[in-house]
Amino acid sequence: MTIQVSKRAMFSAVAALALGALSSQPALAQSYPDKPITMIVPFSAGGPTDTVGRILAQSMTGFLKQQVIIENVGGAGGTLGAARVARAEPNGYTIFLHHIGQSTAPALYRKLSYNAADDFTPIGLVADVPMTLVARKDFPAKDLKELIAYVQTHKDKVTYANAGVGSASHLCGMLLMSAIKADLTTVPYKGTGPAMNDLLGGQVDFMCDQTTNTTGQIKAGKIKAYAVTTPNKVPSLPDLPVASANGLPGFEIAVWHGLYAPKNLPKPIADKLVAALQHAVKDPMVKQKLADLGTEPASPARATPAALDQFLRSEIVKWMRIIKQAGVYAD
Length: 331
Ligand code: MLT
Prior knowledge:
Blueprint: H1 7-31, E1 37-41, H2 48-64, E2 68-72, H3 79-86, E3 94-99, H4 101-108, E4 120-136, H5 144-154, E5 159-162, H6 168-180, E6 185-188, H7 192-201, E7 206-210, H8 211-219, E8 223-228, E9 254-262, H9 267-282, H10 284-292, H11 305-326
Parallel strand pairs: 1-2, 1-3, 5-6, 5-7
Antiparallel strand pairs: 3-9, 4-7, 4-8, 4-9
Helix pairs in contact: 2-8, 2-9, 2-10, 4-11
């Protein structure tokens, strides 16, 4: 038995299907998010990126009325986490907090499995975090001048912790070693959370790490601090001198953080995530927690897709030139 289906009926069935698919986007966005969202942090729990992530996630959870849950995917200076996000479904249930490492990876990793600018949907900038030069509590140098002299004398006898090639702590160390012309022995970790444990225990000598990870230990007197890497003093650490004005001219680095999703994220969903980020950068809880840790949220004007996209692309160009000049590679 054959069933005759008129062309008109066929056409209206196809049209209904197509309209259903199209009309489902606003419906999809209206119901989004209807389950918890995973925020990938590409470094270990307990480190500076994780700390910013948890503060941001708490605020976004309140705004979106859905749990934003951190998943730490550490390794290879943040590139393993980035690769995971680049492969994820663009459905709004995987988002990504990364930092300056997103812009240095293309220069350091010649076999990256993703394009750092094109394989992500930018949501917006989150915060710029100062770095601090810190050492184990009984390290011999008492100030920045002595630290520089000690490292120049003892060179690879000094161990330097970082979160892998491409991490901010690696970048800071690379710039420092270039500035003082001394190569330290590098000890890589999956994040400066675990690195801090070894610094506290005296298993590693020295580190350049973000105030979001060092402020508490410095104030508790559990590690030695020598300087901040920003052009101006950090209000929450007023006793720390500015490195570039005290023996390390031009040595300045701050760790910008950005929020992303996989590329091709439907615009209605991206808009909701942008709204949640805009809420977070104005959230008094976020402002207070970041201020206690030496930083502040990005301005609403920078917490936008266009601002992050433009800034990331300019940073990729900048670090490609600097890193190629330094002749440093990870692979
Ligand atoms: C780094 O780049 O050093 C990372 O931020 C360390 C971390 O977040 O654990």
